[in-house]
Amino acid sequence: MLYMVIEQFKDAPAIYRRFREKGRMMPDGLSYISSWIDTDFKVCYQLMETEDVALFQRWTENWDDLMEFKIMPVRTSAETAAILEQTQTG
Which domains does the chain have, with CATH numbers? Predict the structure, then answer.
């Protein structure tokens, strides 16, 4: 399943320093897909994938001193269109 992770940065330079030193520090089974950072270096929108939502807690523990997280399950637009088409024709 796909998840949109919204990270509120507390200290962007410290986040990128830790990232350079230790990487993403994600447990096996949690996959990074892509991310976007706002132009003020305060918010990161990150698309991730996993079949085990509990892995997010293990991952966020590595970073929660430097950012706050909101994690939401999402679907692609194509998946949404297919689901809605089925419900309208079924």
Answer: 2-89 (3.30.70)
